Amino acid sequence: MTATRAPHFPPPTGVVDAWINPNLGATAGDVSYLFPDLAERLERGTTLEQLIDEMDAAGVAKGVLCSGFFGDDREWCVKARDTHPDRFALSHVVDPRDGMAAVRLVEDLVAQDNYRLIRMMGLQTQLAYNEAAYYPVYAKCVELGIPVSLNVGFPGPQVPSKYQDPLPVDDVCAFFPDLKIVLAHGGEPWVDVCVKLMVKWPNVSYMTSAIAPKHIPPAILQYANTRGADRVMFASDYPLLTHERCLGEVVNLEFRDAEKLQKYVAGNAEALFFS
Questions:
Q1: Which of 3, 6, 12, 221 has its CB 3.0 to 4.6 Å from that of 265, i.e. a possible disulfide?
Q2: What is the mean pLDDT of residues 246-273?
């Protein structure tokens, strides 16, 4: 079947952005070589009102806020969610090298503030995802029924990339078949491995965070248009990419039908983080 360009469909509605970093700062690492206009957005900063206005202007109904990696911003994110409970869910970056402190943090995030996603990043830990340090956090996420997001692919910050090779996730899935895993940040140059992991393991999904939609790997779009329609979800990694730019490019993606497009921009993230 030949794909049809999205403008032939009704515009997508109720977009859910699965990764928003409202307080992204210098601790995220220097990625200016990838996003040359980012410095201006960081200099300006983002208030909650500005974030809501930008989401509304682009047609983003809901978003998953991220705290933990970019400073002490948990309180900001919780307040934003409590102010707009119909608009936001919460995620937090956990460092598994903290041992039982990381496990207790996960339990507190979920029990106290209803966090819906735990994130871990090889670029931060410099550990492959099948290293022992991660396993207590994986086990706690299974116990709590909370998905975990793992950054895969060459990271933007100029640190070694081998720790974000997605292949070790295969070991994790075999050991924790009930763990819901979201592969984030693209997976390049190992995109085919990401697809193979989704084909093999029913609890693995993929979000297109930090990838401008026009640059989404063809293998991912092919998978989203076929057996992976329920596995691939939109994410911007705002403010690295703006909602305006991302949604402007989404309408030009080649989806076979409006249902698959809607699952990508809203339905899959809605089901995982808001249901």
A1: 12
A2: 95
For residue 88, list its beta bridge partners: 63
pTM given for the model: 0.92
* Distance (Å, whole) CA 3 – CA 224: 12
Could you give the CA distance from residue 26 to residue 1 in angstroms, rounded to a whole number? 46
Residue 134 token pair = 């991660």
Beta bridge partners of 256: none
- Domain residue limits at 227: 4-273
Q: How many domains does the chain have?
A: 1
* Euclidean distance between CA atoms 194 and 165, whole angstroms: 10
What is the CATH classification number for the domain harbouring 110?
3.20.20.140
> What tens digit of pLDDT does each residue of 133-174 get?
999 999 999 999 999 999 999 988 888 999 999 999 999 999
Beta strands in the chain (DSSP E): 4-5, 15-20, 60-67, 88-93, 117-121, 148-151, 181-184, 204-207, 232-233, 254-255
Look up residue 275 and give its amino acid.
S
**What's the pLDDT tens digit per position in 212-230?**
999 999 999 999 999 999 9
Print the SS3 string covering 129-183.
Answer: CCCHHHHHHHHHHHHHCCCEEEECCCCCCCCCCHHHCCCCHHHHHHHCCCCCEEE
CA distance linking residue 74 with residue 66, whole number of Å: 8
Q: Is-contact 89 117, C-beta < 8 A?
A: yes
